[in-house]
């Protein structure tokens, strides 16, 4: 690696740390993350993955607490233990080259549907921002295991930007951390709409034709 490339990577790394700390606090404020549950990461072009540490409250995490791991999950930099869901983050990055950031949360509405094993259909046209017409549910496995990572990978078909995890939470992805965080927020909004409409009766779900029109419009000018 030349000195110039090294400096560029270090600069990218510094901004990744910063983004993760700021985003973690925002997601905490918005109620998508709570205490130490959930985790977020950014993958750099050199495949260094910057990830939040395990068991640290989001308002206490500082730039130096962020851990750098390789796609094999091994720690490359940092004194903290990386998030217990590091295998999940690494496997999603490995199988989805379109993904450069991941947000994993246990946000309440999305997790309620995940507990019920219910996928989220096209209850609102804004599901198009997630590049799918259905947010699928990955099968349950113990948190932090390779099995859970594989279940998420199997349920997470590109270009979809979100998937629920049975009895656990959700995973949202993006090409930037902001995009992944916005996707996590969108899943929580859609889950809230779906649950509230189910309490009144049978929700009207948008048809594939109606969603195709939304996607066509979205391609020209994202909502
Ligand atoms: Zn979790």
Structural summary, described in words:
With 223 residues, the chain is of the alpha+beta class. The chain has one domain (3-220): L-fuculose-1-phosphate Aldolase (3-Layer(aba) Sandwich), CATH 3.40.225. Helices cover 42% and strands 14% of the residues. The protein is built from six helices and eight strands, in the order αββββαβαβαββαα. It has helices spanning 3-29, 86-95, 108-116, 146-155, 177-200, 208-220; strands at 39-43, 49-51, 67-69, 75-77, 101-105, 137-138, 162-165, 169-174. The chain has an eight-stranded mixed β-sheet with strand order 4-3-2-1-5-8-7-6, with helices on both faces. Helix 2 (86-95) packs parallel to helix 4. It is globular, with a radius of gyration of 17 Å. Zinc ion binds next to loops.
């Amino acid at each position: 690696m030349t000195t110039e490339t090294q400096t560029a990577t270090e600069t990218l790394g510094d901004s990744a740390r910063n983004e993760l700390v700021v985003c973690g606090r925002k997601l905490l404020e918005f109620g998508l993350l709570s205490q130490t549950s959930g985790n977020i990461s950014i993958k750099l072009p050199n495949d260094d993955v910057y990830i939040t540490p395990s068991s640290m409250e989001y308002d206490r995490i500082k730039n130096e607490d962020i851990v750098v791991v390789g796609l094999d999950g091994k720690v490359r930099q940092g004194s903290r233990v990386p998030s217990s869901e590091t295998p999940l983050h690494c496997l999603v990055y490995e199988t989805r080259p379109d993904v450069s950031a991941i947000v994993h949360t246990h946000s309440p509405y999305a997790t309620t549907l995940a507990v019920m094993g219910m996928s989220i259909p096209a209850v609102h046209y804004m599901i198009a921002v997630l590049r799918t017409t259905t947010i699928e549910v990955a099968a349950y496995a113990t948190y932090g295991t390779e099995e859970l990572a594989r279940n998420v990978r199997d349920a997470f078909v590109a270009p979809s930007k979100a998937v629920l995890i049975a009895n656990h939470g959700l995973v949202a992805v993006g090409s930037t951390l902001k995009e992944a965080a916005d996707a996590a927020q969108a899943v929580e909004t859609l889950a809230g709409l779906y649950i509230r409409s189910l309490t009144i009766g049978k929700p009207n779900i948008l048809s594939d034709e109606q969603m195709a029109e939304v996607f066509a419009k979205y391609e020209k000018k994202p909502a």
